[in-house]
Amino acid sequence: MFAVLIAVMTALVAIPxxxxxxxxxxxxxxxxxxxxxxxxxTTAISLFRAxxxxxxxxxxxEYNSYGNNIQNAQGLATYVSQVRSRTxxxxxxxxxxxxxxxVTQWYVKQLGGAQYVNHVASLAGANHGTTSASACLxxxxxxxxxxxxxxxxxxxxxxxxPGPTTYATWYSPCDGIIIPYTSTTxxxxxNNYVLCExxxxxxxxxxxxxxxxxxxx
Length: 217
Prior knowledge:
This protein is an alpha/beta fold.
């Protein structure tokens, strides 16, 4: 009887512990720029998939380019909540382009989004405005995007990169739309200077997009 008990105990010790369940991947929410759409992110999504992301981790938020960026940010807050509920993830990463930088910043800074966002990657974000918005001032979004607007001043006041969120930007003197091009940089972020990239070129620049993917990982 004693020998049987020893054998059973030895067998139990020999059973390897069950492996810990892997934590779910952090979903990525892409936020387009002025007059953009989810289709802007086709190259990025393909590249992220090639880098190990699943389709169920990649999302593209669409908003009204001609409406109001405060409402657009509120919509982003709702969208992020839906993504978190759908995926079971506690937080998301956000990749934005152009005016999407303003939508993202308002959500993160003014609507408490920092607690739900791990990383923010801003590609040519209009984070401090752009004088090229003077061409479309009939729209509230463009009024908000113009340097010195109350919207821009609110975002620029205090900590530009609040909360536990990690921030990075990509900016280039060849942008042509974000004027001045240094408007994209944020105090407290890792600001990546790109030698020469056009404003729209970021959306298909696999070198930059790979750098963004690596930043999120």
